[in-house]
Design a protein that fits this description.
alpha+beta; six-stranded mixed β-sheet; 9 helices; 32% helix; globular
Length: 324
């Protein structure tokens, strides 16, 4: 029986088998909101994917993928002298080559670039999104705010991960869907998460990338298995990390929540009226808070204390009005 027929996860697959699947262009990665068919002749990529996509199923050949991507060894002398890999989609190579041993960061950044350009039917927020009790916690933030670190930490404390880089909100369904890529941790955040959760399934370290040292945190099995479940908006919390900052959680008015969502959306302007309506809906139905923190444990405790209030507010809003 083949590995695909056996229903194996990538982390359970024989490395030789996974390498063969990659070379033959038969690796299908379903992230929830979108999917990719990946081909690669990189000798490093199979093992790297196994680390950060360990819980993803090794899917049989699919009828459709949104993106067909190739990560290929550079030709000519670059195959032998300082080897490199290149990212290709639709016969185009939009990026400069990466060193051959950084095939995974190239795949991740290239995939994110494609998602940002192609998924116009969704409002794509630069936000971590996690689920609890059927409601989404949305963490919109600019780079450097501690978004990815807090998203990773929450996912390691029982919150279901939907996304780190792209919060995918459907303006028609008015719900979130997973964009289940690995959480990209950079520089000091890597050691912080390792200290926070020594058992965290972190992938290999990639030093000296264009963003410094990078490592990826893979999603757990529950998040992978539930990646097609739609989730109603719950709360918007804007994280602001600062060294030695005291913990603060301050309620924000709807217009500031709207401003944060619109500013941190990749395609807000491209979506025109639909983007405005989507951000307005989120700002209306979600309570908004500004979270200042320096310690992960403090931030998580504050969110854990907040969540019953969020849950009860949505239950009241959904309850039918009493008969007159």
């Amino acid at each position: 029986m083949s590995a695909q027929a056996a229903g194996l996860r990538l982390g359970q697959t024989d490395p030789g088998t996974l390498g063969k699947v990659l070379r033959e262009g038969r690796l299908w990665l379903d992230f929830g909101a979108t999917s990719t068919c990946l081909t690669s002749d990189s000798s490093a990529l199979a093992a790297q994917l196994q680390r950060v996509y360990a819980q993803f199923p090794l899917l049989p050949k699919q009828a459709w993928a949104d993106h067909h991507v190739r990560v290929l060894r550079a030709r000519g002398l670059r195959r032998w002298l300082r080897p490199q890999v290149e990212f290709e989609c639709d016969l185009k190579r939009p990026f400069e080559p990466f060193p051959a041993d950084t095939a995974l960061p190239l795949f991740e950044w290239g995939s994110n670039w494609l998602i940002g350009k192609r998924l116009a039917h969704l409002l794509l927020l630069h936000a971590g999104v996690l689920e609890r009790d059927g409601l989404a916690l949305v963490l919109p933030a600019v780079p450097g705010s501690g978004k990815s670190t807090l998203t990773a930490a929450l996912s390691l404390r029982g919150w279901r991960l939907l996304s780190d880089e792209f919060g995918a909100f459907c303006p028609v369904r008015r719900c979130f869907i997973a964009m289940l890529k690995p959480v990209a941790l950079k520089n000091e955040s890597i050691a912080l998460i390792r200290g926070f959760a020594p058992e965290a399934p972190l992938g290999p370290l990639f030093p000296k990338t264009r963003k410094g040292t990078v490592a990826h945190l893979g999603a757990d099995r529950d998040a992978v298995d539930r990646r097609h479940q739609w989730v109603r908006p719950g709360a918007v919390v804007m994280p602001r990390w600062a060294a030695d900052a005291s913990l603060s959680l301050t309620r924000q008015p709807a217009h500031l929540v709207f401003g944060s969502l619109a500013f941190n959306a990749f395609n807000y302007q491209d979506n025109g009226e639909q983007g405005f309506d989507a951000a307005s809906h989120l700002a209306t139905v979600c309570g908004g808070w500004l979270l200042g923190y320096s310690r992960l444990d403090d931030a998580i405790a504050a969110l854990e204390d907040l969540w019953p209030q969020v849950r009860e507010a949505h239950a009241r809003a959904a309850a039918p009005e009493p008969a007159r």
